[in-house]
Amino acid sequence: MTILAAEPDIYPPDLLDLPADPTRGRCWWCLHTKPRQEKQAARVLRKRALPHYLPSVDHVSHTPNGRKIRSRLPLFPGYLFLFSDEYERVEATKGGHLANVLAVYDQDEIQGDLRQIQRLLNSGLTVKAEPSIPVGAVVQVSSGPLEGLRGTVVRRQGRDEFVAVVRFLGRGATIELADWQVERVDDRRG
Predict the structure, then answer these.
(1) What CATH number did the domain enclosing 155 receive?
(2) How many other C-beta atoms lie within 10 A of the C-beta of residue 70?
(3) Is residue 78 part of a domain?
(4) How many structural domains compose the chain?
(5) Which domain holds residue 157?
């Protein structure tokens, strides 16, 4: 497998300083990518000179032999942000890496939020993504041998766990699961 050099997270570098321009129709869009296609989508956007932001963090893992592997991973897996007019938005969809384009209704809020994220990432401090499923949420296991089971997310000893409960007894069992293994569901049972 070819290891690619780290690429810029933001294009152009002053993107977050540019004001939204309603007269030209320039605004922020949230691009939802196909699984593990964030970086490739960003490469396509950069090649087409389309302004975008893919917040990324450094990640270190180890091989079974103990060798360190350093990589850059998206802070928000599956998402990147496009700043464009309508024509550029349509151009962005032509790379084949996107699942959906989400409209952003509060332009000032998204720009402020992205500036804060950029400031955190530029601080030199360790930045970690917050889990997408909060404690107390009802979830369903989406893959693996427990696929389809429903339970609740709890936090014990600093770790998120999945709890399957026998409600009648008021007792349950827990396992540790990662966010990517569960999806949030509506708890209303019919």
Answers:
(1) 2.30.30
(2) 10
(3) yes
(4) 2
(5) 138-184
Chain segment 51-83, per-residue pLDDT in tens = 999 999 888 888 888 888 888 899 888 899 999
**What is d(CA 171, CA 163) in angstroms, rounded to the nearest whole number?**
10
The sign of the dihedral angle between the CA atoms of 11, 16, 21, 27 is: positive
For the chain, what's the residue count?
A: 190
Question: Average pLDDT of 6-21?
Answer: 85
Contact 26, 40 (CB under 8 A): no
pTM: 0.69
Identify the sign of the CA torsion 89, 90, 94, 96: positive
Whose CA is closest to 152, among 119, 174, 120, 128?
A: 174
Query: Other C-beta atoms within 10 Å of 96: how many?
Result: 10
